């Protein structure tokens, strides 16, 4: 195992992100699912120059992106978006893409459970076939009930993966697992060799080591199931608007290079655009916590 990190949490030039992750011992980047934003040749050179690689990407299910939408055209556009993310990963030499099937923040279904399941299986089969041709693995990612009504637990993701294809995997995120699983360690064992990606943040969604999760126990479970991929750091600290704020100056009041939909995505997660110092703290603390264990 080794450390990777997402970059959707901080609006900054990618070279600043890559310099930081290289400085703190990260080996890879899980690049945000924004294929229109990147020139893959330039990104590949940047990563190579800093001795890191692309681990994969994660879909950003913003706006109308929804693989189980009632509207057929909306589903088709969402499939195209995910395929564009896969193509980006492939061009960067990455291995995985984490797919959240539904729109993040959408809590009301469009149709019956049976219809939405069928729509999602159909779209994911198409996506998985394309991913296979690009030599990229799909990991269906459960997220918590406050962000989606569809696929909250590892067992649900495994059932969906089984319905798609034998080579369709799952991605687990210990923050979401801490909210939804009866036993997160048992859920890791249940995923077994279908586990293709693992996202990490502490129980409060701050940096690993800034909460109460038992990281030695988590790493032990991952070793026991033979997981050898990245621990992909994905913190998203809560925004404190009270006089009890422990981290004054944590918010960047004048961020550059962030769209309104990306800003909304952060705010819908109860977070905001971090200041450089606050972001750096979380990158460093996660590395200090996890590197000695792997």
What does the model show?
The chain is α/β, with parallel strands linked by helices. It has 10 helices and 8 strands. The protein has helices at residues 14-23, 40-49, 72-91, 113-133, 154-164, 174-180, 184-191, 215-224, 260-268, 276-290, and strands spanning 2-6, 28-32, 53-58, 96-99, 137-140, 169-173, 195-200, 230-233. The protein has an 8-stranded parallel barrel with strand order 1-2-3-4-5-6-7-8, surrounded by 7 helices. Helix 3 runs parallel beside helix 4.
| SSE pattern | EHEHEHEHEHEHHEHEHH
Beta-strand percentage range: 5-15%
Number of DSSP-assigned strands = 8
Helix content, binned percent:
40-55%
- The first-to-last residue Cα distance is 6 Å
> Taking Cα atoms only, what radius of gyration do you get, to the nearest Å?
18 Å
Structural class: alpha/beta
* Major β-sheet profile: 8 strands, parallel, barrel
Strand order of the largest sheet: 1-2-3-4-5-6-7-8
Unreliable stretches (pLDDT < 50, length at least 5) are none
Mean pLDDT: 93
Number of helices: 10
Q: What best-fitting shape do the alpha-carbon axes yield?
A: globular
């Amino acid at each position: 195992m080794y450390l990777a990190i997402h970059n959707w949490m901080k609006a900054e030039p990618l070279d600043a992100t890559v310099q930081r992750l290289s400085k703190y011992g990260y080996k890879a980047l899980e690049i945000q699912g924004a294929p229109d934003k990147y020139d893959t040749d330039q990104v590949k050179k940047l990563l190579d120059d800093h001795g890191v690689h692309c681990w994969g990407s994660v879909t950003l299910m913003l706006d109308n992106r929804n693989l189980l939408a009632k509207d057929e055209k909306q589903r088709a556009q969402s499939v195209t978006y995910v395929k564009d993310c896969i193509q980006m990963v492939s061009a960067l030499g990455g291995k995985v893409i984490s797919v959240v099937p539904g729109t993040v923040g959408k809590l009301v279904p469009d149709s019956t459970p049976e219809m939405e399941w069928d729509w999602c299986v159909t779209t994911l089969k198409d996506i998985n076939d394309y991913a296979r041709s690009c030599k990229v693995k799909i990991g269906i990612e459960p997220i918590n009930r406050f962000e989606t009504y569809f696929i909250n637990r590892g067992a649900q993701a495994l059932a969906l993966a089984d319905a798609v294809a034998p080579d369709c995997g799952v991605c687990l995120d210990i923050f979401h697992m801490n909210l939804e699983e009866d036993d997160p360690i048992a859920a890791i064992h249940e995923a077994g060799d279908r586990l293709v990606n693992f996202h990490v943040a502490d129980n409060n969604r701050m940096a690993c080591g800034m909460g109460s999760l038992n990281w030695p126990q988590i790493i032990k479970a991952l070793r026991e199931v033979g997981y050898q991929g990245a621990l992909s750091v994905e913190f998203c600290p809560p925004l404190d608007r009270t006089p009890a704020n422990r981290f004054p100056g944590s918010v960047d009041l004048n961020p550059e290079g962030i769209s309104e939909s990306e800003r909304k995505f952060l705010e819908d997660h109860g977070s905001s655009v971090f200041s450089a110092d606050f972001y750096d703290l979380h990158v460093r603390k996660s590395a200090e916590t996890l590197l000695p264990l792997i």
